[in-house]
User: Fold this.
Amino acid sequence: MTEAVLETKKNAAMKLAGLARREANGEPDWLLDLRGKALDQFQVKGLPDRKVEAWRDTDLGRLKAMDFQSSTRESDFGGVERLEDLRFASLDCPRLVFVNGRFSTELSSDADSLGGVTLGGIAKQADANGSVRAHLGELSKWQDNAFDALNLAMFEDGALIEVQGGIEVEKPIHVVFVNLSNGQNGPFVVNPRVLVVAGESSKVSIIESHLGSGEGSYFSNAVTEIVTGDNATVDHYKVQLELESAVHISSLGSVQERDSNLRTTVITLGGGLVRNEINSVFAGEGGWSELNGLYLVDEDHHVDNFTRIGHEKAHCDSREMYRGILADSARAVFRGRIVVSEGAQQTDSKQTNNNLLLSDRALVNTKPQLEIYADDVKCTHGATVGQLDDDAVFYLQTRGISKEDARVMLIYAFAGEVVNRVGVERLREELDSHLLKWLPRCV
Assistant:
């Protein structure tokens, strides 16, 4: 590594650490102490480079080259009318809206209409809500992950969703993070955060949207933590449509108790440099989880998906399916690890990663992994990288369909394997609409 590259890496880390130094603003002592530890850890770890195995295929040059001017900036967001114009911002359900990292009471809706559910900003709940103190920072990997540590040190506010035991929430809860950039004040940093606590035998669906608007570049560093109690069910959908000039790095940490069900779906549609990381752990027997992902990548953009499922208890099942579509000179990375601990007998786990290349210049690095320390398990994994089947295209042409339309139909069907698993109808319709708009310019 050259001295210039080392200096760039050092300067970027120092700049981010400097932005993380913040006023107490009436925060409780336990949170201030946690922030301080996280900042110390970030300064020790620094930004990862390609010598770190988990980052070997992803270059953070775009992030390190940013000359950050502030952590977040005040919003001049005009009102609900403009919010409605953003795709994936309005899905006809209760919503919590954050603009450049700050909770917006005006743009949020129906936040108080759900019985047995606590909704709101983490900042106002930090002192009085025991769940915030019990779980904040417990599931993220901030001791090992520099970006998780940076988020914990820097976040200004976040979404708290707490569902009491036995409550089934009828409508999905929508958390909207809007990042506004006018391109005049230089790059900024925003640290979205979500904490979900689902009580025993509860049921809830959550949509988490990360959307960019305007011009210019910024860095969105998101962390989500999900606690799924005994016999609880959580469906979590993350949709990311940041600006093409943005860097989006996110991590999701989850823990599942006895007989719980968790489905996470990560949809990546934007951003110039994107990294999605999931760390999911079975902490009780009889659990079930499903990890789905879809990434559409074009131009010279880069998307990295890293997942880890920890089977630490017996009689748990997991299913994982990630699919990617790449055009132009796009790059994608998939690393999926399934770790079965010694006592996790009767584990049943399946993992697949399929990639479709629409250009000879596109490139995918995929590495599914199994680590098995128990002897009574059923585990499989597989990965594919390929182009459209010429015979299938020709078959459709013989039925009077143009070559371009035939390609669109096949690609749409490929992506549909993930989209059709989305359990929220309005979100599924929006994804279909975006996909049909994106595909014709890539075939």
Summary: Residues 3-8 have pLDDT under 50 and may be disordered. The CA atoms of residues 163 and 184 lie 41 Å apart. The first helix runs from residue 3 to 20. The radius of gyration is 21 Å.
